[in-house]
Amino acid sequence: MNITDIKGTVQLSNGVNMPYLGLGVWRTNEGQEVIDAVKYALDAGYRHIDTATIYGNEEGVGTAIANHATDRKEVFITTKVWNADQGYDSTIKAFEASLDKLKTDYLDLYLIHWPVKGKYKETWRALETLYAEGRVKAIGVSNFLQHHLEDLMQSAKVIPMVDQLEFHPRLVQPKLLEFTRQHNIQHEAWSPLMQGQIFDIPELKELAQKYGVSVAQLVLRWDLQKGVVTIPKSIQQKRIADNAKLFGFNIEAVDMALIDGLDAATRVGPDPDNFNF
């Protein structure tokens, strides 16, 4: 990953350029709250917004983008098909509903939100259809571990271009990270700041002081230097802007290794092998 500035991108396996920094809107309320958050992000220079059907705020995201001076073509929009909508026909229908809410006629990235057993292969087939029709520029998955990817790839005509996973200093999953690299699947981090828990890790506080940055900036820069796309969530204008100030410093190799060493296989979200929703 060539790290340049807030609008920098990584090239996916199909040649599509995906901004490596985005705004996540999980648990951001529909209506003015999400509209403001997306506006703050676009004003700050972000060009990647990540939402999902289950977040219930696609309409607000679409309104914010439609009303902003930034051209739609400059904004990379990701959403995800929810578990209850999985299956071939129901995924196509869910995609149509998402397009309507987002006020757009195409998506930049469409993801399977969770690997629902017995359904994700048919869901993937629907994503392949949408991709072949040119209605989405890239397709991928979320919360797929290595065995899920291997199973899907046995029948897939198109290899997922992205896998969005819980990724932070306490959950690095180096073998999975290496697997996605080997198969040219772009790793993407959700909950990169551990829902605020990173601020309680002493080693990160010390390193942040060394580089003269915040703990959040340190960890988000670590993501990028690991080659991982990152989508921190905030609704506060200053924090959204601060989370993008990642380009005036470089974490030394010894400190990258130190952060890697904080891995404790600890999740703040559900286990992809053990979820029931």
Automatic annotation (TrEMBL):
Can you tell me which family this protein belongs to? Belongs to the aldo/keto reductase family.
According to the entry, every stretch annotated as the NADP-dependent oxidoreductase domain falls at 21-263
Task: Please state the span of the N-terminal signal peptide per the UniProt entry.
Answer: none
Record field: transmembrane: none
**Which keywords accompany this UniProt record?**
NADP, Oxidoreductase
**Entry protein name:** Diketogulonate reductase-like aldo/keto reductase
**From what superkingdom does this record's organism come?**
Bacteria
Query: Residue numbers for the site described as Lowers pKa of active site Tyr?
Result: K80
Active site (UniProt): Y55 (proton donor)
What are the GO MF terms of this UniProt record? oxidoreductase activity, acting on the CH-OH group of donors, NAD or NADP as acceptor
What sections of the sequence does the record tag as coiled-coil?
A: none
Q: InterPro entries, per this entry?
A: AKR, AKR5G, Aldo/ket_reductase_CS, NAD(P)_OxRdtase_dom_sf, NADP_OxRdtase_dom
Q: Which residues bind substrate?
A: H113
